[in-house]
Write a structure and sequence with these properties.
The chain has 652 residues and is α/β, with parallel strands linked by helices. The chain has helices at residues 11-23, 37-42, 63-73, 95-106, 126-129, 142-156, 162-172, 176-187, 194-200, 206-217, 221-229, 235-254, 269-286, 290-300, 309-323, 361-378, 400-420, 454-470, 487-501, 521-524, 567-570, 580-603, 611-627; strands spanning 2-4, 52-56, 83-88, 112-118, 134-136, 348-349, 384-391, 428-437, 440-448, 474-481, 509-512, 518-520, 544-546. Helix 6 (142-156) crosses helix 7 (162-172). The protein is elongated and about 100 Å long.
Length: 652
Amino acid sequence: MLVAGPVGTGKTTSGLIYAKALLCDSPADGEACGGCDLCREFGDHGRDAVSFHALQCGEHSTVEEVKDLLENARVAPFLARRRVVLLDEVHNLSRRASDALLRILEAPPQWTSFILLTYRLNLISEALRSRLSNFELGALNEAEAFRLLTGVCNREGLSFDREGFRLIFKAASGGPRAMLRAVEKTCQFGPVDGANARLALNLSFEDRLTAFVRALLASDFQGQLKEVEEWPDTPERKLDFLHQFFVFQYFESFRRIHREDPIMQNVGSETQEELVDAFAARACTLGLESGAYWESIIAALTSNTKVTDHSLAMILSRVNRLFNPLPVIGAETKKPAVGLTKAIVRVRSTALSEDQAYLSWNDVRPHWEAASLLPQRYGLLFNLRLTISCSGSGHPDNNGNALLVSKLTHELGMRLKDWCGSSSPVLHWMYRHESQEETSQRTRLLLSIPDAHVGAALRWLSCKFVVRASRACNLRVQIACRSGVSQESRVRFHWQGVRALSRSLNPNLTARSDHGVVSPLVELLKIPLSWRAPARRTPNEQARGASSSLTVGAKLKGEVGMARLSALKDGAWLALDTGWELQEHEARIAEMERRDVAIAKLAALLPDMDDGRRESLELEMELLKASWSSDPRDWRRSWSGWWQPQMSVKPG
């Protein structure tokens, strides 16, 4: 049989109880009698039972040690009815030792029973598991835990209350062994109640959490470090409690979903309200959805590696940077030193109230981000620009242009498949709808078409699609194209198309220029003066859109752990439309190839390695991956980034 489950759930105890029952001369209903010679010989741990053989695989995992044990299993017992072999932490066995165990389990001696224990079931091969009866132990639920603790306290004559049990259950995560140890610690201070449980288990840290939150709200990173570093506990527990606190506040105060947490419930309600209000304000300032912002902070409070004091300090630094990314708007700031990373751009409005006739920065920013993503990820540019005007008598169909654009992009994508065959590329596009007048709409659409098929796309648009669509409404389509020209001209066309989509940006929005001067955003984005005009908002639910290939969440094979640069977020306005993304695309490909080669070199050594060397090599591979920086500024590249000293920018 195979017994699996988390640490502290009773695997070893269950295995020993079962082994004793197997060896017992007079078992009753599957339980050992406890009175026969073999039961007395076995005792509680079986150390003196000659027919019981136990191997701690965490200490003894080689094939030679396992073979010696298995040889004993093949010999019939002399004094007992059976032999019992127990292998604890069986997941630690080497590959050859596992193979030797598998061979005997395929045809086990009739007088031998095998009991395998593990807390890492995922490391046990399917071949081995299929030859065993599998039992999985889990943590206790609250009712089961209370019954266990009540029985123990009654037998030991200990006073207790429900609050003490709730704290012990939560702190031990339902693990029986951890709960029993917690009772042992708590009873040294008196009754097993809430006050003594907090004292014994070091759970009286409400003041620490409150002070940490106050320092976070005040942008006092040194104060945050001070509170956490002076907190008398291990780095792992401190990080776990911080994570638990923010998760509790997320559900309790933000989502308004009550989740019982006796450890965190004593944090003051005033602190909770201040934290929720501050999160909402930060999310609004950054243009983020509040729930996603909460989740990003919580995600930063996790670690997949061993937590030390130093790594905990870096985690807190990331959290502080997420919560306090920039100086307060309007504060006097100096120009950053050359070579230092620039802060994410902050946009503010100088108007007393936002003019509804203009577009906000949140309406326009996705176009610029998608336009930077296209060349950086795919090495392509927008080379076709359509302006579609649709009008008719009476009130227009608010979704008319939306349906038209949907049909156009779908059918053009199908045509590309016909033209390109099996090597069909992805069609990249983005658009914005505007209402011209009460009875007409205008849509600006940018597309990226393979140069070899631009002519075919233009013929299809002019002779097929526009003619067919004009039968249903008064349709006028203006087409502009750039293909087969210099890269400088293509880059200029690409970004002019984005400016056309941004022509109705609110002129009252400002941001700091590369030289630290507050300037109108329309000037920093170089939107021509003749283009700037208010726009009537469309009643469409989706006034703008883009192909799924241009969404930030779309992942490409090999891109895991490879963040992208953004001149827009860094406020590097002079570099915004220089075409640096095309060079960065090549740098990203080179970086992915370099990583693939490094992994392939290590992987090529694996087949000929023994088990010990294989584990060492796999660890080395993980360390290699962990050593790669996720910050693209740290990669090797042939072009000079805007964040580097002495960068000369040539306008695109």
